[in-house]
Amino acid sequence: MSETHFGFETVAENEKAKRVAGVFSSVAQKYDVMNDLMSAGLHRLWKKFAIELANVRPGQRVLDVAGGTADLSAAFARRVGKDGQVWLTDINNAMLGVGRDRLLDEGIMAPVAQCDAEKLPFPDNYFDLVTVAFGLRNMTHKDVALAEMRRVLRPGGRLLVLEFSKVWAPLEKAYDFYSFKVLPWLGEKVAGDADSYRYLAESIRMHPDQETLKAMMEQVGLERVEYFNLAAGVVALHRGFKL
Ligand code: SAM
After folding, report:
1. Domain segments of the chain as ranges
2. What is the pLDDT of residue 140?
3. What is the pLDDT of residues 14-53, one digit of tens each?
């Protein structure tokens, strides 16, 4: 049986998805408020940067993978307009429920699908843009998921991966203190769940750094791959094209 990481733990591959599901089912209702608190609102700026770089135009087709509570989907839906399509997808029903409610509250009629990024239920060469924000880290076979995202892109389409990454070395100590002491404490106080936020900190440390993720994207056939560090590398936005 192959093994993989769940945070700092080593688990059987078929165990990881269940453990990740446990995390997101537990935090779904408090997910948005925790994001604002943990990042002091910065996650909104990181997503705004991704939205600007995506540069979607009216009529385009967008796939939001691991879209969760749908803030990216909502922003893209406003940009593609009536003739475009934005699909909100996620593997987790609780997260997707919050996302679907947000879209409806904002008056957006977008299709929603519960699916695994490693097996996307879409045809080849379909989307102009695929995005995955803070989702790739949680996937068991990141290479398979990246290849799937490339498969569903049309030639000329682009993939954007927004994810935690490797912070600038002089900030590492302070960032570790914040991640391993403050985050679980905040998770306990606000969401009644320290463990999920401990997993968040650990999963960030286990995630490939900027250059490694760039190489992984190139390995699945994406081209002109580049990345942009945000907040001194706390987060990186990678972009690659299917040519
Ligand atoms: N994209 C949203 C955002 O930026 O706020 C949500 C990110 S949340 C940290 C990570 C999401 O990835 C969760 O909703 C989780 O259910 C989803 N996820 C984890 N593994 C997945 C998989 N294999 N396929 C699809 N979604 C997955």
Report:
1. 15-241
2. 97
3. 999 999 999 999 999 999 999 999 999 999 999 999 999 9
Number of neighbours of residue 176 by Cβ within 10 angstroms: 13
Q: pTM of the predicted model, to two decimals?
A: 0.97
Residue 49 CA to its chain's centroid (Å): 14
Verify whether ligand 1 is closer than 6 Å to residue 138 (CB atom): yes
Does residue 95 have its Cβ closer than 6 Å to ligand 1?
yes
Judge if the beta carbon of residue 133 lies within 6 A of ligand 1.
yes
Q: How far is the centre of ligand 1, averaged over its atoms, from the C-alpha of 159 (Å)?
A: 16
CATH classification of 15-241, choosing from 3.30.70.270, 1.25.40.10, 3.40.50.150, 1.10.10.10? 3.40.50.150
Question: Does any ligand 1 atom lie closer than 6 A to the CB of residue 92?
Answer: yes
Going by C-alpha positions, the residue among 37, 75, 81, 38 that lies closest to residue 60 is 81
